[in-house]
Structures are given as C-alpha cells and as structure tokens.
C-alpha cells in the first residue's frame, strides 16, 4: 500500500515496553545477571494495560519492562563489573582445566568485585526514605543470621547479617523504643519507633528449621546483598544521631571479661565480638535524657534470671529495652553477670512444668509474662503466670478493635487492669469448690447473669466492664430519681429520630433499613461470638465439675 | 587403526600370560585351544620376537649367572672339597697359644695422629679480613637516614616511582559481604560515593522508578489466631478461614471431576444400540422421494425473475423516498417539540451524568484495589501461600514445646512476589536436546 500509512505496533504502548529476553540481549547479560541487576537497581516488571497491543497481537504471557527503565540500566557501571566477572570465571575455569595452579592463584587474588553504595544513594536520596524501607531489610537480615553455616550460602554474608542485626538490637536497647511484641507460630514480631517511623520486623525462632526447596536462593541472596548494605548505612547514621561510636566498641570492663571468658572457648574468635556486644550491655554508662515516661522504665530496677530452656536472646533484648538487668547460667553463653544463687534477683523466668529448688524472695514466672507486660505497658499480676499454671492466651497487640466488634473477655480484663479495677468475677468463679450445691447454683446463676449483662453492654459499645454486685432481692421504699438533663436531651433526640423514621416514605424506609441492617451486622456477629464463648466456658465448667465429683 | 591393532595385541599377549583370570571361565579351555593353533610365518622379522619362545635358554643363562654370583664359578667346575665336607661331629675350638690377647684399654692412638695434633697453647689469631667491610660506616649512616625518613613518611625514590606506577582502579577490590566492612555517612551533603556518585541529568534515575509497585506493607503481621497461645475465638476464626480455603479447593476439584465425568445419557442402552444398527434400513425411503419431487417443482427460469425484480425495485425506491421525506418532516417536528420537552431532557441528562459518575467511582475503586493486588507479571500466576495455622491438638501452651509452623524464608519470598518485586517462577526443568537411546553392549547381550 502507500508509504504514508501508519503501520501497526510501531508507536504507542507497543514501543514503550520491551520483553525480558530482548532487554537481556540489549544489555548482553545472562538471565541470572539480568535478574540480579534488576533486583539491585529496583527495576520491576510491569503489567501493561493492553497486553495484546504490547505483545504485537500475540496473547502469550510475557514479562515486560518499561523501555525507559532498561535504557536507564545501560548506564550503570555495575553492568561492566558483571561482564568482568563472567570473563574472570571463564579464565579461572581454563586455568583449572589446564592445571595451571599458579595462574589460578593469581587470578583468584584479583577477583573483581563491586560496591553498591552509589545504588543505595540513588534509590534512597534521603535518610528518611531509607528508613521507610528498613522493615524488609531487617527481616531479611535476621532471617539470614539464623541460617546454618554449611556453605550453601556464603558464610561471610551470614556473619555480616549477624553483625548488623546485633547492632540494630543494641540501638533499639539504647533508644528504648520497643513498643509491641507478638509471639506467633511463625516467629516473633517486634514493633519499634525510630525517628518517628514505625518499624515492624519478624525474627524467626532459634530452633532448627528445614529449608523449603521451592524458594529461589539466588534471588534471596541478591536481596540480602542489597539489604545488608542498606542496613549498614542506616546503622551508621542512627548511631551518629545518638553520638555513639560506630562500629560499637566495648568498654574496658567488658573487654577484660570477654578475654577471660574466651579462654573457656564460648565462641569462635570471629564471633566473640558480636556475642559479647549482644550480651554485655556496652552502653551502660549512657543515659538517654528522655526516659521520662513510665513505659520506658517498665522493668527498671528489676533483676531477672533466665533459666536454660527459655529463648534467651529474645527475652534479654526485650527486658533490656525496658531497663531490666538480665543474666543467665554461666555455661550457656558469654555475658552472664550474676549467678542463680544471687539473693537480689527479683524474677526468675522458667518454662518447666515444675521446679524443685525455689528461692523465697523471687517470683518464678513463665516467659509470656514479660511479653504480655510489654504489650499491656504495665506490670501484670504475676499470679497468672506462675510455674505450672495454665497461661492466659497471648493476645496480639497489633489488633485494634473498632466500635461494635467482638472483644475477647481476656482483652477486656486487660483493659480493666489498665484502668485500675480488679475484676471480682474471677474470684467468684473460683469459689465453685463449695460442697453446698445450692450456693453453687446461686452463684453460677448470678455469675451467668452478670456475664450476660456485661457481655451485652460490651457488645453494644466498647466500654470497660461496669461491675455488678450480686444483690439480694428485697422491697425497698422508692426514692426520687434526679433528672439527668443530658440524658433527657438524648432521650428527646432519640424520640425525634424515631418519629422521623416512622414518617419516611416507603422507598426511603427501604433504603434506610438496608443501611441499618449492614451496620448492625457487626453487632450481630459479635453477639454470636460471645454466645459461642459462653457455651465453651460453660462446657469447660461442666467438665471441671465432673472431674471434681469424681 | 594402528592404535587399535596395538591395543588388541597388547590385550592378547596379556591374556596369554599364565596367571590371567578370564571373565567367562572357559570350561573346555585347553581342549578348544590345543586344536586351533594359528599358523605363523616365522621368516618375518616381526614374528622373530613374538612367536619364538626362548624361555628355556633364558632360564639356563640365569642359572649360570646365579652360580657365578653366589659361588664364584660354575658348580660343575668346582672340586669336591670345595662343595662338600664330611661331618664328623662337633669339636671344641682350641685357642691358638701364639696369638696375643688384646687388652681392653688397648688401642693406642696412632703416631701420625699424635704428630698432627696442635701442640701450642696459643690460640690462632682472628682473621680480621673476614669481618672487615670497607664502607660499613657509610652503610650504617645511610640506613639510619632511611629509617628517619621512613619515620617521617618520606619513602625512598624506588618506592615512590613504584607507587606512581600504580593504577588507581586496579587495587584489590573489597568484597561486598565482608563481615568487617566499614560504613560511612552516605547521606552527608558533600559525601561522594566511590563510584559514579554524580551522574549527568541524562542518566539520572527516572521519577517513575521511585514509586513502589505495590502499596502493601513490607511485613504483614499474622492474625491474632496465629499466636502460639491464642484465645479461643481468634483461633476459631483462623481455623474457619483455613477450612474455607480447603473447601474451595475441594469444590474446584469436584467441579472438574463432575464436568469430565461420563454422563448417563451418553451411555449406550440397548435401545440406542438397536437403533444405530437398524439405521437407514426401514421406512425412511418414501419421505425421501416426496422431498425430491418438491425440489423439482420450484425450479424457475431466470428471465421472469428479473422483470419482477425491477418493478419491485422501482416500488422500493419510491417507498424509500417517501420514508426519507417522512423522516425529515418528523425530525423538523421533533426539533420544534423539544422545546416543550426540556424537563424530561434535563432529567435524562441528569440520569446519564449519575451513571457516568457511578461508573467513574467504580473504576477508581477498581484501580485502587489493583494497586494492592499481585499483578500478573509472567507465565505463572501468583499462588497465595497456605495459612500457617496449628490445629487445636497441635497447640502447645508453652513456649518450650512450641513447634514453629511455616518457614519465614518462604514467607518472605512470597511477600516479595505479592508486592510485585519479582515474578513467580518455577524451577527450570532439564530438557534434553536429543532423546536418550539405551543400547546393550555386545558382551552383555551374550549373557543369557
């Protein structure tokens, strides 16, 4: 046809996108190198709106990148380093193949490497940008530091991750900015506040875990490479804001102790520095000026001793974040400052079903007490967490209940405690062990009534429990009730509203009913949940009674 | 071919050695071999060495050599006295009276040794020349000066030249993941990075790349039912969620099975089989004949048709013209009447605007939702990870007996995919270019 006609796929979205293989060939990199480059530079594939146009009529599923991004990639100096590395590998393989050991040694000494500093500066031009992205980096670093040092992934990476995570924990301890902790079946979630940013990260448990096979380790290693560099720079800057030396050094006392203990071979020399850093609180002389709030001094003045079977690192971190002194058995790890026989220990954290030898002037608690205190921002009564006692459930501090949602009774108890009221319902329920069945029934009934009333109130509005005393039934002379003006106004308004609703047209009333139905749905669900919970409690009570009768 | 022949010869010679163990123990080995002796031409030089057996001569010569070594001369040449003696029994050995007994202190030093001993008490003089260095002082002063300069930091000329030859980029690069690597303040205003700190504006990072591909948070906290010691309701809620996903999966499987199952109608019954067998054999022939006759009746010649059509055409044209006219009139009337229809027109417009606004809000909501969803970035779709949940009997109330569920590595990997940072990929399968062919070796084929 004529030469001036527009051809298809020559302009528009078809020219803005480029497929992955074409991009790779444009940069002349292998696929693994291309993926690594994209991860390091932060170039992600895009899903175009009209795939058929971009794919030039075909509907095959392809990965597309923006052409401008790939053009930007071509100016990256790291691309040259990747190519150098490829040539280095080829030369090394040839030297080994020809059994030229001298050449191989020389080549290995001059192995090409690259640095990611400029990429970090380009992706995060200000410090606050970097701080926003630090959750991911932290989780990855903590995860890699728990890997076994088998050689599957570079041992140096694991060591670097360990060092960075220890430095971060030290910073949080110094700043005392830990806010929430949640123990899930997957790992431990921490939330802290740093320079106005709320940072959440996930730490795995220290038990051995098997590695899943369908995870791409190369991709994770590349992400870790980027994140370790980022976290290192962030750590440096954070330490600078507190006028601390980076990398953190131990004070004189700490070093002597560490040297003395290293003779007993607690840790390899390479690890000694990090272990000592973590376990000997090296900034003991540092006093942050704004530790005024009660929350930051939660465990101030208390002395804790951790038994062997509790998660030592996590508990030490959490306890130190709130000003406590922590120690453990000497044979476990470097850094135990006092022994189990110390008389001034106030709390001893144990996780066993029973303990033979018990000292008098200390509380023996289970580790959940610490975490629950941190989440509740106050010291909870220790009796619920004694050794051998069935623990109350560990609630998640990350859940915020809106009005009308179901609030579990444990949470309500907690709120009550925070407001300073002690729930007496618990004590009443504990008096079930009476022989007199009538009294039991009465108490049960009153308990049930109270519970029901309480629950109904809770379900309507999220208010703290207003306690009812089991009052005896009798006739008393009437008394004039004072007219509460506010209440009267509210009632008048409610009356007006009801009248207006009655006067609505059928069409409008239909819409209104639909809206109110939707609003009351959450309330109805909460009622259902509370009924279920009540049924469960009753069933457990019945079981208890049966057991007692036996 | 020459190498193969040499190899074969080598093998044959090895096999013919007396102690050689065969793979197949040949039972009638000697009987079969003896009859079939290969006829060899011994006149060829090649075969002089191969097929001539000089073992007996060699043995004899060895024997002769052994005799000469051991006894000095052939045994046959020796006299009887030299080889044999008559054994008369043991005799006491009488000491020879003439021989002098050697004393224990005995062995006096030789005269010549005594003469050669130094007899002077004066020690030999020291050889100064061995310790002399003509310019020792000069060297000492030079060394002191060099030390002083080195302490101040000035290097000798040679070192300076060497260092000047050094190329700045060719120093040993520091590895990226070195655990003892140092960091610095990257965000200081005047801080330059090592490489490429200030690219020209043409090469700077495009603004679009600073937008995150997904608005999901990096770390999503688990549901309260996933606590290691959850409270009843949240645990039940989590179990319900897991249950629903399983139910949905089961339903999908069942639906597939149902769609692929054989329907009852498709099964062959006796009646349908009979009908198929009998098809085309009875009673349909009469109907067929009638149909054929009807077809023959309707055949018409072409000329009559065209005339009708042209009349029709004329009529149609006229009708069209009239229609057009009517349409125009109608249009004129309508445009005049629109003045009186303003209210309905405005109502119509309002309705349409409302529709467009509703559609706009719906499209905006859809866009917002898409910002949070995992996008389709490649061949594979994103598979949501399974919920980590522990059943009621797996729940252990204590931290010590907790068995962690799910792997954080997988969780992070899936989170990266969910936030559109990487595309979901599966492990590359090993594809062979050519099909593998299995062939049995000749020797093994013979084994029954």
From TrEMBL, chain A:
Gene: pes
GO cellular component: nucleoplasm; PeBoW complex; preribosome, large subunit precursor
Binding partners and assembly: Component of the PeBoW complex, composed of BOP1, PES1 and WDR12. Within the PeBoW complex BOP1 interacts directly with PES1 and WDR12. The PeBoW complex also associates with the 66S pre-ribosome. Component of the PeBoW complex, composed of BOP1, PES1 and WDR12. The complex is held together by BOP1, which interacts with PES1 via its N-terminal domain and with WDR12 via a high-affinity interaction between the seven-bladed beta-propeller domains of the 2 proteins. The PeBoW complex associates with the 66S pre-ribosome. The PeBoW complex also associates with DDX27, PES1 interacts directly with DDX27. Interacts with IRS1 and UBTF. May interact with MAP1B.
Pfam families cross-referenced by the UniProt entry: BRCT_2, Pescadillo_N
Organism for this UniProt entry: Electrophorus electricus
Domain of life per record: Eukaryota
GO BP: maturation of 5.8S rRNA from tricistronic rRNA transcript (SSU-rRNA, 5.8S rRNA, LSU-rRNA); maturation of LSU-rRNA from tricistronic rRNA transcript (SSU-rRNA, 5.8S rRNA, LSU-rRNA)
Organism lineage string: Eukaryota, Metazoa, Chordata, Craniata, Vertebrata
Protein's recorded name: Pescadillo homolog
Key words of the record: Coiled coil, Nucleus, Ribosome biogenesis, rRNA processing
Gene Ontology MF, one: ribonucleoprotein complex binding
Keyword Coiled coil in annotation: yes
UniProtKB/TrEMBL annotation, chain B:
Record keyword DNA-binding present: no
GO biological process entries: ribosomal large subunit assembly; rRNA processing
Main location: nucleus
A GO molecular function held by the record: 5S rRNA binding
Keywords: Nucleus, Ribosome biogenesis
Pfam family name, one: Nop53
Gene Ontology terms: cellular component: nucleolus; nucleoplasm
InterPro entries with a match to the protein in the record: Nop53/GLTSCR2 (IPR011687)
Compartments (UniProt record): Nucleus, Nucleolus; Nucleus, Nucleoplasm
Extent of Acidic residues compositional bias: 286-297
Region (Disordered): 286-332, 351-376
Compositionally biased spans, kind Basic and acidic residues: 317-332, 364-373
Function of the protein: May play a role in ribosome biogenesis.
UniProt record similarity statement: Belongs to the NOP53 family.
Name of the protein this chain belongs to: Ribosome biogenesis protein NOP53
Species in which this protein is naturally found: Electrophorus electricus
The encoding gene: NOP53
């Amino acid at each position: 046809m004529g030469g001036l006609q527009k051809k298809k796929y020559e302009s528009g979205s078809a020219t803005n996108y480029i497929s992955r293989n074409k991009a790779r060939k444009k940069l002349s990199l292998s696929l693994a190198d291309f993926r690594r480059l994209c991860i390091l530079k932060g170039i992600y594939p895009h899903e175009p709106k009209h795939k058929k146009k971009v794919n030039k009529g075909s509907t095959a599923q392809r990965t597309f990148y923006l052409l401008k991004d790939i053009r930007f990639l071509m100016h990256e100096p790291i691309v040259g380093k990747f190519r150098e590395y490829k040539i280095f590998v080829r030369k090394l393989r040839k030297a080994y193949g020809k059994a030229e050991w001298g050449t191989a040694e020389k080549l290995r000494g001059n192995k090409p490497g690259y640095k990611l500093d400029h990429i970090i500066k380009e992706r995060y031009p200000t410090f606050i940008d970097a701080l926003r992205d630090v959750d991911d980096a932290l989780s990855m670093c903590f995860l890699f530091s728990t890997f076994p040092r088998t050689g599957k992934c570079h041992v140096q990476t694991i060591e670097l991750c360990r060092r960075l995570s220890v430095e971060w924990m030290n910073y949080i301890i110094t700043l005392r900015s830990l806010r929430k902790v949640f123990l899930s079946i997957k790992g431990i979630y921490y939330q802290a506040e740093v320079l106005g940013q709320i940072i959440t990260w996930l730490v795995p448990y220290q038990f051995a875990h098997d590695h899943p096979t369908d995870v791409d380790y190369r991709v994770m290693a590349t992400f870790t490479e980027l994140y370790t560099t980022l976290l290192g720079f962030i750590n440096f800057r954070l330490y600078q804001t507190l006028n601390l030396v980076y990398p953190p050094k131990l004070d004189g006392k700490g070093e002597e102790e560490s040297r003395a203990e290293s003779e007993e071979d607690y840790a390899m020399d390479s690890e000694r520095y990090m272990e000592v850093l973590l376990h000997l609180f090296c900034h003991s002389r540092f006093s942050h000026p704004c530790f005024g709030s009660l929350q930051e001094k939660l465990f101030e003045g208390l002395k804790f001793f951790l038994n062997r079977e509790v998660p030592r690192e996590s508990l030490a971190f959490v306890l130190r974040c709130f000003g406590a002194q922590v120690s453990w058995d000497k044979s476990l790890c470097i850094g135990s400052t006092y022994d189990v026989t110390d008389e001034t220990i106030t709390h001893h954290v144990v996780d066993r079903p029973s303990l033979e030898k018990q000292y008098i002037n200390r509380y023996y608690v289970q580790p959940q007490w610490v975490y629950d205190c941190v989440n509740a921002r106050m010291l909870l009564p220790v009796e619920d967490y004694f050794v051998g006692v069935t623990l109350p459930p560990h609630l998640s501090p990350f859940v915020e209940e809106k009005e009308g949602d179901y609030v579990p009774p444990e949470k309500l108890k907690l709120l009550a405690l925070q407001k300073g009221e002690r729930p007496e319902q618990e004590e009443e329920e504990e008096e079930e062990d009476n022989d007199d069945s009538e009294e039991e029934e009465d108490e049960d009934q009153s308990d049930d009534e109270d519970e029901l009333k309480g629950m109904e109130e809770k379900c309507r509005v999220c208010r703290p429990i207003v306690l009812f005393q089991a009052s005896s039934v009798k006739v008393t002379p009437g008394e004039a009730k004072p007219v509460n003006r506010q209440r009267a106004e509210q009632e008048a308004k409610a009356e007006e509203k009801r009248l207006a609703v009655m006067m609505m047209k059928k069409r409008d009333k239909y819409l209104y009913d639909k809206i109110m139905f939707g609003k009351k749905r959450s309330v109805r669900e909460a009622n259902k949940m509370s009924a279920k919970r009540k049924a469960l409690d009753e069933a457990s009570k019945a079981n208890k009674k049966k057991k007692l009768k036996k | 071919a020459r190498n193969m022949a040499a190899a074969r010869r080598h093998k044959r010679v090895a096999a013919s050695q007396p102690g050689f163990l065969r793979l197949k123990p040949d039972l009638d080995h000697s009987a079969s071999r003896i009859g079939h002796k290969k006829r060899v031409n011994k006149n060829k030089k090649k075969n002089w060495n191969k097929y001539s057996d000089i073992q007996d001569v060699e043995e004899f010569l060895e024997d002769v050599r052994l005799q000469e070594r051991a006894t000095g001369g052939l045994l046959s040449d020796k006299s009887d006295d030299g080889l044999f003696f008559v054994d008369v029994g043991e005799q006491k050995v009488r000491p020879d009276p003439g021989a002098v007994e050697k004393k224990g202190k005995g062995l006096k030093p030789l005269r010549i040794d005594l003469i050669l001993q130094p007899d002077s008490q004066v020690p030999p003089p020291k050889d100064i020349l061995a310790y002399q260095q003509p310019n020792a002082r000069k060297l000492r002063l030079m060394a002191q000066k060099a030390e002083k300069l080195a302490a101040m930091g000035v290097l000798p000329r040679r070192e300076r030249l060497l260092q000047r030859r050094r190329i700045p980029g060719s120093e040993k690069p520091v590895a990226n993941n070195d655990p003892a690597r140092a960091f610095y303040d990257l965000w200081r205003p005047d801080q330059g990075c090592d490489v490429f700190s200030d690219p020209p504006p043409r090469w700077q990072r495009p603004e679009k790349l600073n937008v995150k591909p997904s608005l999901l948070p990096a770390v999503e906290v688990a549901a309260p039912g996933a606590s290691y010691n959850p409270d009843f309701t949240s645990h039940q809620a989590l179990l319900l969620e897991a249950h629903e996903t399983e139910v949905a999966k089961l339903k999908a499987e069942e639906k597939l099975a149902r769609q692929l199952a054989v329907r009852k109608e498709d099964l062959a019954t006796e009646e349908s089989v009979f009908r198929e067998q009998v098809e085309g054999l009875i009673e349909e022939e009469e109907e067929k004949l009638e149909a054929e006759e009807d077809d023959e009746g309707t055949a018409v010649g072409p000329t009559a048709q065209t005339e009708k059509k042209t009349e029709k055409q004329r009529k149609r044209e006229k009708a069209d013209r009239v229609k057009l006219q009517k349409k125009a009139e109608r249009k004129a009337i309508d445009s005049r009447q629109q003045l009186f229809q303003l209210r309905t027109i405005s109502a119509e417009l309002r309705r349409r605007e409302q529709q467009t606004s509703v559609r706009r809000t719906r499209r905006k909501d859809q866009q917002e939702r898409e910002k949070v969803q995992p996008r389709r970035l490649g061949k594979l779709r994103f598979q949501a990870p399974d919920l980590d949940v522990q059943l009621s009997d797996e729940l252990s109330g204590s931290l010590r007996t907790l068995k962690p569920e799910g792997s954080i590595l997988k969780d992070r990997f899936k989170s990266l995919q969910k936030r559109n940072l990487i595309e979901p990929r599966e492990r590359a399968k090993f594809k062979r270019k050519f099909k593998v062919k299995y062939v049995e070796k000749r020797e093994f084929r013979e084994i029954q």
